[in-house]
Amino acid sequence: MDTLPGQGLYPLHRCKTIHLVRHAQGFHNVAGEKDHNAYLSPKLLDAQLTPLGWKQVDNLRKHVHASGLSDGIELVVVSPLLRTMQTAVGVFGGEGYVNGIAEPPLMVENAGNSNRAAISSLKSPPFVALELCREHMGVHWCDKRRSIRDYKPLFPAIDFSMIESDDDVLWKVDVREADEELAARGLQFFNWLWTRKEKEIAVVTHSGFLIHTLNEFGNDCHISLKREICRPFTNCELRSVVIVDRRMIGSHSSTTDYPGKIPRGPDTPSDDADEIL
């Protein structure tokens, strides 16, 4: 019997579930919708979330807990900009932080003039910041990050160790990263995900990164599925996808497969078994 067209069958340990999240509304989104040239203003450097953006964060947090999604996430990967880190810790972090707890908070009180309480790292997955999932580099000031030494006191429990330069050496005031370059960086990021041991990962990133990276996928699918994969993200939208390692990039082994024939010995033919009974 032939398989149905378009179906695929893959070993479970060659698959990962990725929960993709675009950051909540930032002040640059509001300014840019009114005037696209606003992105050129240094006043929007590393724009933070708006009050509406924080409400979006609170609503998504309720969803991930009510759906049980938060129980399975083993790692949160976040772009090292203020709006993405605020979104990530607000959605996937612990409850309110209490002074005196041994573990550092994910976010201190009023980080980025947010008027928000501190967020605990207790009962939350580890958070790691990675440059690969940043927005387009260059020209737009909202996409320029601050120094890591500025971020660490605000987000003490986020792991910044994979970021090589303290200052933002990737952002250029007069050169905007091409779409093709961003897409290539996005594919490099997804390949990096395969080096991780975690099977279920949340990624908090940006609209342009998602649009151009996801456009590289789905070319072997029905056109309607390709459209579904590449559909633009709204602010604080979460979309879950499964990625499959078909090139043996990863070296993970299955934790659910069972070898059988334990204890080992000759199998009894079915007819002999009937005679014994």
Describe the structure.
With 277 residues, the chain is an alpha/beta fold. Helices cover 29% and strands 11% of the residues. The protein contains nine helices and six strands, in the order E-H-H-H-E-H-E-H-E-H-E-H-H-E-H. It has helices at 27-34, 51-66, 69-72, 82-92, 148-151, 179-193, 207-214, 223-230, 270-276, and strands spanning 15-22, 75-78, 127-129, 158-159, 200-205, 238-244. It has a six-stranded mixed sheet with strand order 4-3-2-5-1-6. Helix 2 packs parallel to helix 4 and helix 6 crosses helix 7.
What portion of the residues fall into strands of 2 or more residues? 5-15%
Total strand segments: 6
With strands numbered from the N-terminus, the spatial order across the biggest sheet is: 4-3-2-5-1-6
Which of globular, elongated, flat, extended, rod-shaped describes the shape?
Answer: globular
Note the main sheet: 6 strands, mixed
Average pLDDT level: 91
**Helical percent range?**
25-40%
How would you classify the quaternary structure? single chain
Distance between the termini: 35 Å
State the low-pLDDT regions, or none. Answer: none
* Backbone structural class: alpha/beta
Rg computed from alpha carbons, rounded to a whole number of angstroms: 22 Å
